[in-house]
Amino acid sequence: MEGKSGGGLHERLPSFIAETMTKADILIIASIISIAAICYAAFNYFGRDGGHNAIIYLGGEVYEKVSAADGIREIIISTPHGSSTVTFYPDGFAVTAADCPALDCVRSGKASKYYQSIVCLPNRLLIRFETDRQGGLELDALTK
After folding, report:
1. pTM over the 0.70 mark
2. Could you give the strand order of the β-sheet that contains 73-79, starting from the edge strand earlier in sequence?
3. Which whole number is the average pLDDT over 17-28?
4. Which of 60, 49, 25, 27 is nearest to 141 (CA)?
């Protein structure tokens, strides 16, 4: 029975890899890939925290709290700095229109995970989720 050996993974690898890598190297790489896949899956599973209340801050002060139970709701926020239209969904929120020059807040899309927020610096607007995971974090000097 020549030609086919029932060898392990090391024998099935291309020769240039088999010559330079040991079985321990292959085991380490496989472990790292497995750990990364588990972390990615856990992060995506536990990161789906949409459906919580959202808080709108204007100039560093609480402007309004919006409940996810309200369903789809649109709020137009007008200030001396400009206006923004914020749309709230059961699983998140998005700035759907604004008169700021760069429109980064509109292009950021829908925020649906607890760690996501939307900021419009020209209009001094911040929208974020209110969740238990934030651990009572307050606005810092950068977000005021």
Report:
1. no
2. 73-79, 82-89, 92-98
3. 78
4. 60
The rounded Cα 109 to chain-centroid distance in angstroms is 11
CB neighbourhood size of 89 (10 A) = 18
Helical residues (DSSP H) of the chain, grouped into ranges: 9-12, 15-20, 23-46, 104-107
SS3 assignment, position 129: strand
Looking at domain 53-134, what is its CATH homologous superfamily? N-utilization substance G protein NusG, insert domain (2.60.320.10)
Q: Tokens 């459906």 identify what position?
A: 51
How far apart CA 10 and CA 15 sit, in angstroms, is: 9
How many Å apart are CA 92 and CA 87, to the nearest integer? 9
Q: CA separation (Å) from 34 to 28, 30, 93, 100?
A: 10, 6, 33, 44
pLDDT, average across residues 15-30: 78
What's the average model confidence in pLDDT over 83-88? 93
CA dist 12 and 5 (Å) reads: 10
Annotated domain spans of the chain? 9-46, 53-134
Q: Residue 68 is encoded by which pair of tokens?
A: 């996810």
